[in-house]
Amino acid sequence: MESFDVCIIGGGPAGYVGALKSAINGLSVAIVEKERFGGTCLNRGCIPTKVIYSKAKYLSRLKKPEYGFSISGFNFNYEEIINYKDRVVLNLTDGVEKLLKARKVNIYYGTGKIAGKDGGGGFYINIASDEEAENQIFARNVIIATGSSPLMFGAFNINHENIITSDEALSLTEIPESLVIIGAGVIGCEFANIFSEFGAEVRMIELLPSILSTEDKEISRFIHKNFKSRGINIMTGTEVDSIKSVAPLNFKAGENGGHKNKNAKSGAEVVLKTGEKFEAEMVLVSIGRKLNTAGLGLEEIGVKIDGRGKIETDIHNETTVKGVYACGDIIDGPMLAHKASYDGILAADNIAGKVREKDYGVLPWSVYTNPPIGTVGLKEGDAGLSEISYNAGRFSYAASGMALAMEESDGFLKIIAEEKTKKILGATGIGADIPELIAEIASYMHFGGTVFDIEATIHSHPTLSEIVPESALDSIGEAIHKVNPKKAKKG
User: 154-285 belongs to which homologous superfamily?
Assistant: First the structure.
């Protein structure tokens, strides 16, 4: 039986990064993955959606070219876009596997399960696959990094054909004529942006009072207005009762008197709690994620898991069983790929004896609508600001020379600074390249930076990055290219 210092179950952003870091730390490492490396992010999430997003953004520029240009007669082949997306994903997943092999990480393809504990410390892991007989290895430490998958709901009758999840949405080779999206969170809004740009008639149905309800209210209102201007029908505060397949779809009003078209594609019907009904060629269900922690043998060895399948961990990402660690979506914190990678590195270092405590206080995230959204730290409306006197500085893209030169004047950046110390507490914004600007602010926050630290940093001109010091200085009423200084606020 082969023996290792560490075995990682799951090859997503937490798992493969944790494996590479463990190898860098000089440990012997095994990793178990049932499909392709990279997890949801690389195969069915972050990367493939951004490939299609970039094409949708390019299409928006073709539809409305910059001043001085006239474009006519263009078309697109969506199947070719999907083929390119698949090539990008394959290139990156192959790259991850090469990195693991270069670091001498032992790769096992299959499903891993902890079969039991050794009396002297360590764990037996069974590895099952369709191609080979079940194998067993031994590891002194285990990192669980099995991630999450789209949440299924019985009444929604997800059939992966015309009632789909985000997984199937990324594999479509044709744009549906009509699409209903259930859920207007990050996933729902990103797909609404993409499919509406490519010509689908999109309706969004959200249970909560607003779309992107966890974002700054000003951001939510901005995107709501943006989507409506593009013809996206948004229904908030609306509960769905059921979804079912129908065939064929009705014609739209005014066509053949509303009779059914014998050549029409099959579709789906959404029924609201009010009894109102909507038909569409497809329905995309994006109502959350299910944690992949069942069947791993965790509870049998004493690992504490709650009713949702979330694993309890301490500040070192160690579970209630010594030597077993967990990372990524399956523990506390946002379901973000970069957070998962951070978790994997943290666990790997702690196993290697480099004691580290986790801290998600400076954790940036983005939403890729058009324009995109970026956030880090606290934002207005957060409970964390309720007892803090703070200033909110705001600077518009319309006042940026570079944004105007790029014809990207829509958007703003808002920075939150503590009133007394001028320490940066958070930032949020929407506009071209805003995720990159947020990354700069995250660096200041990581080192306890203040408004004056941002001011003291020379920013190249002309760049969008000049929006950062202008927004920071506006929080104390000293923005160079803006009047009407801000006043301190207390939550």
Answer: FAD/NAD(P)-binding domain (3.50.50.60)
